[in-house]
Amino acid sequence: MTADAATYLPKAIPLQQGLEARIELIPMPTKADSGRYRPAPNTDIQVNLFRGEQLVERRRWDSIISGAEAVQLADGTVLGPDDIDDLDRFGWDQMLDYGMIPNTFVP
User: Fold this and answer.
1) CA distance 18 to 84
2) 69, pLDDT greater than 60
3) C-alpha to C-alpha distance for 100 and 29, rounded to whole angstroms
4) pLDDT band of 51, cuts 50, 70, 90
5) Which contacts qualify for 78-87: CB closer than 8 Å, 24 or more apart?
6) Which of 13, 47, 52, 67 has its CA 20 to 30 A from that of 85?
7) Which of 80, 74, 84, 69 has the alpha carbon at shortest distance from 54?
8) Is a pLDDT exceeding 70 seen at residue 48?
9) What is the pLDDT of residue 2?
10) What is the 3-state secondary structure (H, E, C) of 36-70?
């Protein structure tokens, strides 16, 4: 599975330490005749973390939004509680627009 700009949600989410998160939905939900998006039941949510144009790491959504206080990336960067909260909040703001509905709530 490779990152494809066509499957990215439109807005990048700025995080601390110069990181930017781009959420990717695989497959990307399609718009029905009604104008509503219909996501596939097996849609995979990936988070691509960039520093500038450089991809730092690509991770599954649930490996970051997991209830943990912090997440360490492969390059040693640590996503803290503020980063995780921003990703969760602003990520769902966009995913709801594409018909994605949370089915698990993480404290």
Assistant:
1) 14
2) yes
3) 8
4) very high
5) 79/15, 79/19, 80/16, 82/16, 83/15, 83/16, 83/19, 86/13, 86/14, 86/15, 87/13, 87/15, 87/21, 87/47
6) 52
7) 74
8) yes
9) 45
10) CEECCCCCEEEEEEEECCEEEEEEEHHHHCCCCCC
Residue appearing with tokens 């998006």: 37
pLDDT at 83 over 50: yes
Place of tokens 């997440």: 71
Percent of the chain with pLDDT over 70: 92
58, 66 in Cβ contact below 8 A? Answer: no
